[in-house]
Amino acid sequence: MKIKDGEMTKLSLAQWQAVIDVNLTGVFLCTREVAAKMIEQKSQGAIINISSISRAGNIGQTNYSAAKAGVAAATVTWARELARYGIRVAGVAPGFIETEMTGSMRPEALEKMTSAIPLKRMGRPDEIAHSVAYILENDYFSGRILELDGAMRI
C-alpha cells in the first residue's frame, strides 16, 4: 500500500492508520521502552521526540498533523510523568528541512514552499542536530517542543 496524504474526505482508514502507526504509535513504543529501561537502571537523562510544525494543521495532512500533534502532547505528558525519575522529555518540531524528500520536489513547488518561509530558505539537518544538542545540554529544558521553522509559525 502506498502511504500518502490526502484530503480528509478522501483519506482511507488504511492511510490514516499507516501514518498514525509510524508517526505516533512508533514514538509511543520507543519512548515507553527506553523510559522503562532508564527507570530500571536508575539512569537520568533525556528523551527527545521529533514532532513537526505540521502539528498545527496542514491541508491534506490530517493523518500526519494529528500524529505530530499527538507526539507533542505526549511529550509534555511524559515530561511530567518521568520528571520524578530525573528523566527529561522534550521535542523538536522542524519546519521544511533539506532532505531527499524535499530535494525530489518539482522546482516550482520547492520555490513556492521556500518563498513562504520568512527566512527564505529551508532548514538544514545540522540545524536540527544543533537543536537536539541544545536540549541535551540544558538540564532544565523539559516538557517543551522547540520549533525550528525559519519563523513560519510566529
UniProtKB/TrEMBL annotation:
Pathway: Aromatic compound metabolism; p-cumate degradation; acetaldehyde and pyruvate from p-cumate: step 2/7. Pfam families: adh_short_C2. It comes from the Bacteria. Its EC number is 1.3.1.58. One of its GO terms (molecular function) is 2,3-dihydroxy-2,3-dihydro-p-cumate dehydrogenase activity. Keywords: Oxidoreductase. The keyword Oxidoreductase applies. It catalyses: (2R,3S)-2,3-dihydroxy-2,3-dihydro-p-cumate + NAD(+) = 2,3-dihydroxy-p-cumate + NADH + H(+). One of its GO terms (biological process) is fatty acid elongation. It is an enzyme of class 1 (oxidoreductase). Belongs to the short-chain dehydrogenases/reductases (SDR) family. This is 2,3-dihydroxy-2,3-dihydro-p-cumate dehydrogenase.
